[in-house]
Specification:
The complex is a heterodimer of chains A (191) and B (292). Chain A is α/β, with parallel strands linked by helices and 191 residues long. In chain A, 24% of the residues lie in helices and 32% in strands. Chain A contains five helices and twelve strands. Chain B is α/β, with parallel strands linked by helices. Chain B has an eight-stranded parallel β-sheet.
């Protein structure tokens, strides 16, 4: 890296600290985004962590962050959504009437593997970069994608990681492991 | 320390709840209000702690049907309580696929010596603790999330503050010890050496730690967060207040923006009546004394 990137990590609710620490390991400067004033500095990318999409969506809207971040994503800001973050970015959600940013051409099923007893760990390939550990925690999956979406991982026929232009999503949680493959990939999306 | 995949998955679910508010609810309607207000999970129970306290008598696991109705009403994780040591209540809750079991001192204890061997379950458990020793004993038994005990159903935050401060003070003490002092400290605290060593090395509990008991206002919630809680349980504080919907949303915002007094001032406005509450020295049963 010739310059130090600054990545915003949305910190309204959920496992944001884990993303911050993964990004710091890669030499990135991290900015937690909780309220509108946190966006006064320039960021090179933004991460939506795991957590509860209903809680995060509401907090983002009420803080004014939603209206600030949406045009940034549409303008090409690299964005990475994990689990709940994937739900926030999806254009279509199979089993929920709520929509959030609705920017990525994917159809997502929330809590697709059932309740916590359905949570599991596996290893699988991510984008041809080799096998990585994948933790699925009350995870969603992608049931279908639009034509411009590239599938990066799948598990038993369901899509679990994908990219469309400046947008990256995973059903699983690389931030709870020591593997930095997905975060490195995300940083490579920063022009 | 080497932990099993299941324990890791269960600890990781608690991480997803961080920075959030877990609300006690007794009906599907209340559960929907909580979800709409931004709760990251709900605790399904027949009576909230303030009413349990008032009603007296033996308080048990809730009717599974009532819990299932709440599971059907919301998409966020649903937790439920079983009595301390009552592993059959826990088996029943696991059978209905609850997301997290709270082995809770709020209910009447079923066993005054043994807690549940939580390592025998796939479903995750949260347990209350007043200090580092209790927390690490519960973690050794398989708890994958800890909360302060506080004094539930009182609307009095003093005990939650006391427990969190005690835990923080002990963690700092263990952190600053020489490594060869950890053996003796483990004996003193009656905890496993391996767990205490991990606290010494990491400077924190190996699992997520929430505040619970007596949180009634946005300021209470922020106080607990500033003292180091990673999220907040609100029991009676919401649905015993004048305007539950508004208060629930305000407490959620207070937890996200716990370091921002301007936002705290805004969300504290016009919330209607807080739960009346009772002082800890006016009550007959100290629930926090249950289960050491």
């Amino acid at each position: 890296m010739d310059r130090i990137f600054t990545v915003g990590v949305v910190a309204v609710q959920g496992a944001f600290e884990e993303h911050c620490s993964a990004l710091r390991k890669l030499g990135v400067s991290v900015k937690e985004i909780r309220s509108a004033s946190d966006l006064s500095i320039k960021i090179d990318g933004i991460v939506f962590p795991g957590g509860e999409s209903t809680a995060q969506g509401k907090l983002l809207r009420e803080s004014g962050l939603f209206d600030m971040i949406l045009p940034m994503i549409k303008g090409g800001l690299p964005v990475y959504g994990t689990c709940a973050g994937m739900v926030l970015l999806a254009k279509r959600i199979e089993n929920d009437d709520r929509r959030h940013f609705a920017v990525m051409d994917i159809t997502v099923k929330r809590n697709a593997y059932g309740r916590q007893l359905g949570s599991f760990m596996t290893t699988g390939d991510f984008g041809g970069l080799g096998d990585i550990p994948m933790y699925f925690i009350r995870a969603p999956y992608i049931s279908s994608v639009g034509k411009d979406v590239v599938v990066l991982s799948s598990e038993h026929g369901a899509i679990t990681a994908a990219r469309e232009a400046n947008m990256l999503v995973t059903s699983f949680h690389p931030e709870v492991t020591d593997d930095l493959t997905v975060h490195s990939y995300f940083l490579s999306m920063i022009p | 320390m080497i932990i099993s995949e299941q324990v890791k998955l269960n600890r990781d679910l608690a991480k997803m709840l961080k920075g959030g508010v877990i609300m006690d609810v007794t009906t599907p309607d209340q559960a929907r209000i909580a979800e709409e207000a931004g709760a990251c999970a709900v605790m399904a129970l027949e009576r909230i702690p303030a009413d349990i306290r008032q009603a007296g008598g033996i308080s048990r696991m809730s009717d599974p049907k009532m819990i299932k109705n709440i599971q059907a009403a919301v998409s966020i994780p649903v937790m439920a309580k079983c009595r301390i040591g009552h592993f059959v209540e826990a088996q029943i809750l696991e059978a209905i696929e609850i997301d997290y079991i709270d082995e809770s001192e709020v209910l009447s204890p079923a066993d005054d010596i043994y807690h549940i061997d939580k390592t025998m379950f796939k479903v995750p458990f949260v347990c209350g603790a007043r200090n580092l020793g209790e927390a690490l004993r519960r973690i050794a038994e398989g708890a994958t999330m800890i909360r302060t005990k506080g004094e539930p159903g009182t609307g009095d935050v003093i005990q939650a503050v006391r427990h969190l401060r005690a835990m923080n003070a002990e963690i700092s003490r263990v952190r600053s010890m020489r490594k060869d002092e950890i053996f003796e400290a483990a004996k003193e605290l009656q905890v496993s050496y391996e767990l205490l060593l991990s606290v010494h090395e990491e400077g924190r509990l190996p699992v997520v730690n929430f505040a619970a008991g007596g949180v009634a206002t946005p300021a209470d919630a922020s106080l607990m967060m500033q003292l180091g809680a990673e999220g907040v349980f609100v029991g009676s504080g919401i649905f015993k207040s004048g305007d539950p919907k508004r208060r629930a949303a305000a407490i959620v915002k207070a937890v996200t923006n716990y370091m921002d007094p301007k936002i705290l001032a805004e969300v504290s406005e016009d919330l209607g009546e807080a739960m009346v509450g009772i002082n800890e020295n006016e009550i007959a049963v100290l629930m926090a004394e249950r289960g050491k």
